[in-house]
């Protein structure tokens, strides 16, 4: 579940679908279909124009939040995707999966920028620092937290 940045909308999963509902009228504004298995992570871009969803189909989908249409399907994860986070400037998206992989994606093209981590254990959550220079992620089973400098990995 995720609030839109302006607080007027709420995105949530309903089985394999992503729904966006207005808070005030409780009306479903958009229903997105595209995942073939359950959704595990949802997030709005900082400007509220995009929604990302990820799940047990190993895909990450980017949606136009205003028009209610799909933009990109981000493929390349080897296992279920558990977490995602937009960078503070909204230009990148970090995703993490059950195989221990963290990827960075270019939001406007849907292209994979790089793989920044390959851990021996699943990754539960990812988060950008407020200035977008670092990325933190937590490993499953209490195995630890890592913080990396994004600039160390950029091509």
Describe this structure in words.
The chain is an all-beta fold and 155 residues long. Helix content is 0%, strand content 55%. Strands 1-2-3-4 form a four-stranded antiparallel β-sheet, with no helix packed on it. Strands 5-6-7-8 form a four-stranded antiparallel β-sheet, with no helix packed on it. A four-stranded antiparallel β-sheet has the order 9-10-11-12, with no helix packed on it. Strand 5 and strand 6 (50-55) form a beta hairpin. The termini are far apart.
Ranges where pLDDT stays below 50 over 5 or more residues in a row are: none
Tally of DSSP helical segments: 0
Structure summary, number of beta strands: 15
Structural classification:
mainly beta
User: What separation lies between the terminal Cα atoms?
Assistant: 33 Å
The main sheet orders its strands as 1-2-3-4
3D shape: globular
Q: Determine Rg (CA atoms, Å).
A: 15 Å
The topology string of helices and strands comes to: EEEEEEEEEEEEEEE
Estimate the mean pLDDT confidence: 93
Major sheet characteristics: 4 strands, antiparallel
- Residues in helices, as a percent range: under 10%
| Assembly state (oligomeric) | single chain
- DSSP strand content: over 45%
